[in-house]
Amino acid sequence: MQKVLCLGAGLVARPYIQYLCKHGFHVIVASRTKSKAERLIEGCESAEAVTLNIKTDDDLLDKLVAEADLTCSLLPYTYHVKAAKLAIKYRKPFCTTSYISDEMQALDDEAKKAGILVLNECGVDPGIDHMSAMKIIDDIHNKGGKVISFTSFTGGLPAPDANNNPFGYKLSWSPRGVLLAGRNDAHFLRDGKDVVIPGPELFDNYEIMEVPGMGKFEGYPNRDSTSYIDIYSVPETKTMLRGTFRNPGWCTTLKKIADLGLLELDEHVFENMTYADMMHKLIDSKNGDLQSAVAKAAGLKKSDPIISRLDWLGLFNDTEIPSNVTTYLDALCHLFEEKMQYAPGERDMIVMHHEFIAEYSDKKEKITSTLIDYGIPNGDSSMSRTVALPVAVASRMILEGQITLTGVHRPIMSELYEPILSELETLGIKLEDRITAL
Q: Are residues 357 and 407 in the same domain?
């Protein structure tokens, strides 16, 4: 029986483990907290849990990678290269769902010499977004057409039946990651014009977008879209924009949160300080009506829905800030973790929506491709399924010899995306495509 080493037992690991066990592989789940790994392998006869601290247990990591037939890292991205180097040393394939870092890309020659595939970006976003986009882009090119516009937006959100808080958002992954993403600059191409949005202006640059069957969302740009002109081999395009979906109200609220300084990462002392104290300090107000003072500082009326969202979150409360908090962002993060959890039985959803304009010698077409996937009540979340199942499928196909590429890759070539997308369809993860003549 072939062995798969799964590094990490976090939010998305369970579907990965369960899928591979179901398909006859022995899965070793290595986690700093063994009990977390043990919970994930319940019901899997061909799985085991081991305690591993990736930071310090170098000898154990070396042994585990050497003994496995494939390693998949579902740890934070900072640890992937460490594990990938060992996989190359032992000539064993390696997978992850994270973006390819410069350090990871630098392993390309070594991976090729070792004759192994180091597959990255094989989750949902990045992952299913690449595969579903490339399937359509390749089809347009194969028919002699040009892609003159491409936009792609993805959001992990509460399903409509679980969308019951004022932010229209609940946590299906790290709240710190969600908030840190709000500090990034954005760079994209629109109608031939190069557009750069500085991080502080990110949430001013959203647009209202309609998704068939789902209604309206706010879409805002995500980091550097322009690099995908080369990655997706569309030098002809005049528009390349990748972004994030959120429910209405998110962007204006997060903009004011950023303006107030709540996304700052400078260290402060919050000892014996309440959230209300922190807000007084942030806006330099001594006492009086805090909500009115915050509204004034943010250029809002006290009756603005944004103020009631901040109130619901707990920023005006006399609750003490946890002792381990040292930045404004982490103080906010703590409230997100407290207030934005899914209740038992509630579902999340993933919404992904691509739009292409294809130009042929005799016609133009608009092509849309849409994924709407829901979590399973009291079961796996949509986020965990759509992140973990693509890399689980890839792991299986690599070990079965269906995928024979070597080097550092993302799933943008047909020999990767075609079999993975086909298998995902059998698991209920499928994009619906529509073509309209222009």
A: no
